[in-house]
Structure formats: C-alpha cells, structure tokens
Amino acid sequence: MTDLIARSPAFGLTPVAYGATTLTEGPWQQLTALMPFAGQTARICTALQDAYGLNFPAPGRLTRAGHTTCVWTGRGQAFLVGSEPVQDLARYAAVTDQSDAWVTLDLTGEQAAEVLARLVPLDLSPRAFGADHAARTLLGHAAIQLHRLENGFRIRGFRSMARTIVHETADAMAAVAARAALD
Amino acid sequence: MRLTCPLCGARDRREFTYQGDAIMLTRPSNDDPTAFSDWLHLRDNPAGRTRDLWYHEAGCCAWLVVERDTVTHAVHSVALVEGEDAD
Q1: For residue B87, is pLDDT > 90?
Q2: Cβ A74 vs Cβ B5: under 8 Å
Q3: Closest to B9 (Cβ–Cβ): which among A37, A60, A74?
Q4: What is the pLDDT of residue B48?
Q5: Contacts of residue B87 in chain A, CB cutoff 8 Å?
Q6: Under an 8 A CB cutoff, do A59 and B8 touch?
Q7: Which molecular function term from Gene Ontology is one that the record holds (chain B) (predicted)?
Q8: Can you tell me the ipTM of this complex?
Q9: Cβ separation of B85 and A38 shorter than 8 Å?
Q10: CATH code 3.30.1360.120 for A16-28+101-182
C-alpha cells in the first residue's frame, strides 16, 4: 500500500518572518459554508443560537461564541468555523463542507496592517475594520476572506492559491521591513 | 473609481466586473422579433447618465445596478439586483 502523507495547505511555505511581522499557517479548523434558503435567515439564526449561541452574521461581520465563529463570506453566505455543523442547519440552509478547500494564514505583528495595505484595497484601520468585521476582498489578484486577530489578521484563501498568497505577502513583508530599516 | 456596494461598502474598482446596460434585466416578450432583436443587440452609447450592471466579483458576489455619469464620472446610485439574502 502506498503510504500517503497528509500535508496542510501551506505545507513547506510557512513560517515566513521579516522584522517583527510573521506569516504562519493558521490552525486547521472545520469550515462549513451555510447558505440559507430564501426567507430562512431568521430560522438559521435560531438554529445557530440553539447549537452554538451565535447569530448568522450581518454582511461584513462575524459572530463568535466560545471556539465557534460564523464569518460572513458573501451575499447570503457565511462560514461556520471551528465546530461540526449540527443536523438542524441543513433544514434551513445549503450546508457544504469546505474544510480542505481553503488555506488559512495568520499575519501577525505591529506592521501587519502596513503589509496588507500594499496588497488589499480596503481601509484596515481599527476604526473602519474592527474585531467583528469580516471582508471578502482581494490580496493582489487572489480572492480572500479577511478578519482581525488579536495581534494581526487572518487571511483565508483558496487552497490552490496558497503559494501565490504566501509569495505576494512575503514580498510585501520584505518591502515593509526594508523601509522600516531605513528610518 | 470606487463603487459603494450596498453590502460591502465603498470598494475599489478592481473588485468589480462590468457587464453592460441594465436593460438586460427587462427582457421583452418574444412576440415581436424586431423588438427582441433590438433589446438583445442595440445599445446606446450616451455621454451622460447610464444604468449598468456590475458584478461584485471579489466581494459579496452580488449583481449590482450602478447609475453613473460618463461625462462627470459621478456615481449616482448602486443597488442590489436581488435581495440581500441569496436563495
């Protein structure tokens, strides 16, 4: 029998560090896409409250309870992160396992926002993009989901784009670190 | 250029894909082949206000109707084609 070796989406690509900024692969978590059926958003909120104690997020937001997060990922779509989907959810929404399809990368350090400013066309100041904000946007040419961590940002991209996202981010990290070294 | 997506807020032009005149949303009946052909193929190219379809490809993936002015570049309105909830 062939002995297959399980590799994480960013295997061999991370960690990357320049100055005080670090790019690491985030923890593997169960990802489930929830797409509520027409007019079922209120019911999915009740089901999520019963199971995890959180609501279906409003556009551009995320909700948290314990180790479970629900991240808005588009019109009528959110990702349930970190918990198994309960059976009840499938009554009110299309439920799809996405766990192996995405790469999760954590960009941390004081200059994380300056690195992303070179790649992401969003205002990421704490005033405009707080702890409960979640965005779908671009990192260079790659489509990503983005939200804050305590000391940086969590980037979730298509698994097939892992190498591109790490490469682009590492280049921007190097440029920000080089500029900081000049000051 | 920035468009204010009703779901995502003000976003950079590069997140959007342009489709064309929003008249595509009002499909005429097939009874009159000439009218149907005109609707399908003939487009005005006005200097001034236009009403176009844009797709927020790198954002919420919603179709949007954008009213803007091709002379002044002012964006007058951005609206969802369908509701906030997908189905």
Answers
A1: no
A2: no
A3: A60
A4: 95
A5: 36-39, 76
A6: yes
A7: sarcosine oxidase activity
A8: 0.85
A9: yes
A10: yes
Domain ranges of chain A: 16-28+101-182, 31-99
Nearest CB among B15, B60, B87 relative to A74 is that of B60
Per-chain mean pLDDT for chain A: 95
Q: Do B85 and A76 form a contact (C-beta atoms < 8 A)?
A: yes
Express each pLDDT in A20-36 by its tens digit.
899 999 999 999 999 99
* CB contact (8 A) between residue A59 and residue B12: no
Q: Cβ contact (<8 Å) for A75 and B12? A: no
CA distance linking residue B74 with residue B68, whole number of Å: 6
- Which pLDDT score is estimated for A147? 97
CA A68 to chain centre: 13
Fold of B2-80: Folate-binding fold (3.30.2270)
- State whether residue B86 sits within 8 Å of chain A by CB: yes
What is the mean pLDDT of the segment spanning A55-64?
Answer: 96
pLDDT of residue A1: 77
Query: At residue B83, does pLDDT exceed 90?
Result: no
Distance of residue A44 Cα from the nearest chain B Cα, in angstroms: 12
Contacts of A74 (CB under 8 A, 6+ apart): A136, B59, B60, B61, B62, B86
Hey, is the C-beta of A130 within 8 angstroms of any chain B C-beta? no
Q: What element of type H or E holds A114?
A: helix A112-117
Going from N- to C-terminal start, the domains of chain B cover 2-80
